[in-house]
């Protein structure tokens, strides 16, 4: 019996795969490698290359590997770009989810841990986001994640699906030197690429209503997030109760300015960020409470900001050394 990790060759998915293996839980990976990397999947883990839109492939995978649960991480994750590619976003995140759930139902696979997103909240009008904060997504990406949660809710009623959805903001760091964030849109890769190319990283605005004038956000370590996915799967396997959704939040957050300062200290590269204009729609502060996940899913901020930066920088350097 195994858990299927969709998107298991990606940055987050590959960390989840390793967390499952460390706990002695058998896993199978499916990924179309549109943004993932085959080398992120351990050699002894069955790897199926393909799309979740291929229902027949899903059915064969469930049967061949005796899959009993799914950790659904795969999806089109670029919120900003999703505004220009709404149809693609909905196909990858909504149609694929419906196809996956259909194949699960026919194969009697009745458990899912869904990698959702704090993008479902849009711009919340509160200093601390909870699971009950009103949902008002502001991009096709955020909308598609919320629809994914609705599909799970409705399938639970219709077919008895046991599930939970985990919402989180900014995932950073690395749990292994050979795993790293390669997104062209995320803050850490953008900053590291700039430094390695001799450019000065930039900040979008420094006149926000925060202690240092830069935006405050939740940044959580990818290895901490992976552990809570394992905990959620174990609860589902054990028939223990879970909530429909959990926030994996820090409770306090850090500012972009703090991140830049920490990057300079950790890398040993002195720089003063270039201050650019604000981005439209960026709120001063968005931070989520992780109390419910701490209670039920072993959620904890086990890594300091310095450790987040150092682990991410180490994996970026390792990749650069390997390319030489």
TrEMBL record:
Pathway: Carbohydrate metabolism; galactose metabolism. The keyword Isomerase applies. This is UDP-glucose 4-epimerase. Belongs to the NAD(P)-dependent epimerase/dehydratase family. One of its GO terms (molecular function) is UDP-glucose 4-epimerase activity. It is an enzyme of class 5 (isomerase). Keywords: Carbohydrate metabolism, Isomerase, NAD. The gene is galE. It comes from Cryobacterium cheniae. Gene3D superfamilies: NAD(P)-binding Rossmann-like Domain (3.40.50.720), UDP-galactose 4-epimerase, domain 1 (3.90.25.10). InterPro entries: Epimerase_deHydtase, NAD(P)-bd_dom_sf, UDP_G4E.
């Amino acid at each position: 019996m195994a858990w299927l990790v969709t998107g298991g060759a990606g940055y987050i998915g590959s960390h989840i795969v390793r967390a499952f293996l460390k706990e002695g839980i058998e896993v199978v990976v499916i990924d179309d490698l549109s943004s993932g990397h085959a080398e992120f999947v351990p050699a002894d883990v069955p790897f199926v290359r393909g799309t979740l839109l291929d229902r027949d492939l899903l059915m064969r995978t469930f049967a061949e590997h005796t899959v009993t649960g799914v950790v659904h991480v795969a999806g089109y994750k670029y919120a900003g770009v999703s505004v220009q590619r709404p149809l693609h976003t909905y196909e990858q995140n909504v149609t694929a989810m419906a196809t996956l759930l259909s194949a699960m139902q026919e194969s009697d696979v009745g458990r899912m841990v869904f990698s959702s997103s704090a993008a479902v909240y849009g711009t919340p009008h509160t200093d601390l986001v909870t699971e009950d904060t009103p949902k008002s997504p502001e991009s096709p990406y955020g909308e598609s994640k919320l629809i994914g949660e609705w599909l799970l809710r409705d399938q639970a009623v219709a077919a008895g699906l046991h599930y939970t959805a985990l919402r989180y903001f900014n995932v950073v760091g690395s749990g292994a030197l050979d795993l790293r964030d390669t997104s062209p849109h995320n803050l850490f890769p953008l900053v590291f690429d700039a430094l390695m190319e001799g450019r000065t990283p930039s900040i979008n605005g420094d006149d926000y209503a925060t202690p240092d004038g830069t935006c405050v956000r939740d940044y959580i370590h990818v290895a901490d997030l992976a552990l809570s996915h394992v905990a959620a799967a174990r609860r589902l396997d054990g028939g223990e109760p879970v909530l429909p959704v959990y926030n994996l939040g820090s409770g306090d957050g850090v500012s972009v300015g703090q991140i830049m300062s920490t990057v300079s200290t950790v890398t040993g590269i002195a720089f003063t960020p270039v201050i650019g204009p604000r981005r439209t729609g960026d709120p001063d502060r968005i931070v989520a409470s992780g109390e419910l996940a701490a209670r039920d899913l072993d959620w904890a901020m086990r890594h300091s900001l310095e450790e987040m930066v150092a682990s991410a920088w180490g994996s970026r350097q390792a990749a650069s050394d390997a390319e030489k």
